[in-house]
Predict the 3D structure of the following.
Amino acid sequence: MTSTNQTELPSRGKYVEFGGEMKSQFPQSKDWVNLNHGSFGTVPCVVRDKSRAYRELAEAMPDKFIRYEMPSLLDESREAVAKIVNAPTETVVFVGNATEGVNTVFRNLKWNEDGKDVIVFFSTIYPACAKIADFNVDYFGPNRVGIKEIPLTYPLEDEEIIQSFRDAVADIEKEGKRARVCTIDVCSSLPGVVALAWSSWI
């Protein structure tokens, strides 16, 4: 097992501290300062190398690999992920990106017929995920599902954000409705908080 501030790289047989040292595990140029890893980032070298190895297997024997080997490898990976997230293996699936994952979850929700279900998200939501919520309202109708957007104006402390979420849920319940699902972006895509704060001090 690894500690909370270390990650193990099995193929290299060592631990790497989170922080600056982690940059050495990515193939980006040492002269490049990457400020937008979410949109145009890259993967760790060990992941890149493993991906290339699988592609070479697929190219070497396409039918054999795709029909017989790949399903078993996917199942093994699903089992490994299931242990990490503490979920049944049969509920774990792989998607192309986070937006596809959010869309998959939303498209599989069954909205209650009473029209009290509400989708909750912050104003800093990734735009494509906000569109997923909009689609559900458009498709099922506002009498079936609603939206509650929580406005955030930075800079804010963590507790202020948490409290604004609690207040929004309380407001929904006061209206006799229920907060059915909430999309929370761990890494906000919109506000450049540090840059905005820095420019305000100049």
Remarks:
- Residues 1-12, 195-202 have pLDDT under 50 and may be disordered.
